[in-house]
Design brief:
By secondary structure, this protein is mainly beta. The chain has strands spanning 3-7, 10-12, 18-25, 33-39, 46-51, 57-59, 67-72, 77-82, 91-98, 102-104, 108-112. Strands 2, 4, 5, 6, 9, 10 and 11 form a 7-stranded mixed β-sheet that branches.
Length: 114
Amino acid sequence: QVQLVESGGGLVQPGGSLTLSCAASGSIFSLYAMAWYRQAPGKQREPVARITSTHSTNYADSVKGRFTISRDNAKNTVYLQMNSLKPEDTAVYYCYARRVSDHWGQGTQVTVSS
């Protein structure tokens, strides 16, 4: 079992930046594949970025070149650096962990608006 707590969401203007953090506890963090998902009202939850236990990454086409996922195993934390934010990035962002089973954080709201 692993518990996930997201932080760092908020209100930002278009073109601005935010960094989200996901702190994990309760298990061996380095063995988990991690990801960030997001969900806007009325839409499906969608994957944004993934990072494996060996630091391999991939990104949704909509955020490629703007977002960076990283992990610090010593701090049991995964990050999502978001640059050049657009209004369509507005959503609740969820941290996700997987080894044997799925684990979800509670989500953090990101609002991009002028």
